[in-house]
Write a structure and sequence with these properties.
The protein is of the alpha+beta class and 255 residues long. 25% of the residues lie in helices and 32% in strands. The radius of gyration is 19 Å and the shape is globular.
Length: 255
């Protein structure tokens, strides 16, 4: 569900992003408590990174690494299309979510809440909202680490190397030839970007509005009731999150 692109000295992870106004109930209950009325801000919620699951580019984070790196997200800058001189907001909070259970194969992941400074950048906000309405707004992470380890495949040697960017001549040939996964150790999340067309990464992932179209309201209500029956210890918001995870998995199998 997360897309990785590589910069000169860091990794950029891209996911769909959602916009919220002060008056609107936030889909992520953890983020709701951080959102307050402020006409100068636009709130943005999106998923950053998943634990213990290599993405399509062979990048990998252990859950312990995400726990260590999560605090570095707070107050890091939000820019446009990874242009470091175009900072338009900041990430004010994050949450490490644990949706994985016996029947749903979903790993823990970090979700973030960003505050866009719309009072200073109203023109760019128009482009952001336009992209969001078309399901084309993405959120991308910027991350560095202390080291990387060659893991996860029969070719992996298990070697650990001082971090020198996405690829470097000092890394083993398994990493350089992409025949192993690259585990980022002690990740430090240095910021993130709002990705606007035409610079959006080539990913066929869906915005929530697109996923919603896959099932009727009655079908979604039935799914939630079945999840509630199987997992009575979870809260209603957690039941709903599980339903959306199933929807996302079904959508991914169709694209």
């Amino acid at each position: 569900m997360t897309v990785l692109t590589e910069g000169e000295d860091s990794f950029f992870l891209s996911t769909p992003a959602s916009l919220f106004d002060d008056e609107v109930e936030c889909a992520s209950s953890w983020a709701s408590k951080h959102i307050y009325t402020n006409k100068a801000l636009k709130w943005i919620v999106g998923r950053y990174v998943e634990a213990d699951n290599p993405n399509s580019n062979g990048q990998y984070w252990e859950l312990s690494g995400l726990r260590m790196g999560q605090p570095t997200i707070t107050y890091s800058p939000m820019n446009i299309d990874h242009r470091k001189n175009e900072i338009v907001g900041t990430f004010v909070a994050s949450e490490l979510l644990y949706p994985k259970n016996d029947s749903l194969d979903v790993n823990p992941f970090i979700e973030v809440l960003g505050a866009y400074w719309k009072a200073y950048f109203p023109e760019t906000l128009q482009a952001i909202e336009s992209a969001f309405n078309r399901g084309a707004l993405a959120l991308s992470m910027e991350c560095v680490g202390s080291s990387i380890t060659c893991v996860g495949t029969d070719e992996a040697c298990g070697g650990t190397f001082a971090y020198k960017g996405p690829f470097h001549e000092s890394y083993c040939q398994h990493i350089l030839s992409r025949t192993s996964y690259r585990q980022i150790n002690e990740p430090h999340f240095v910021g993130g970007a709002l990705i606007l067309p035409p610079n959006r990464p080539g990913w066929s992932g869906a915005h929530v509005k697109e996923v919603s179209a896959l099932s009727t309201d009655d079908e979604k209500d039935t799914m939630i009731k079945e999840i509630a029956k199987d997992f009575p210890h979870l809260s209603p918001s957690e039941w709903e999150m599980q339903m959306w995870q199933l929807q996302m998995q079904r959508f991914k199998r169709r694209v």
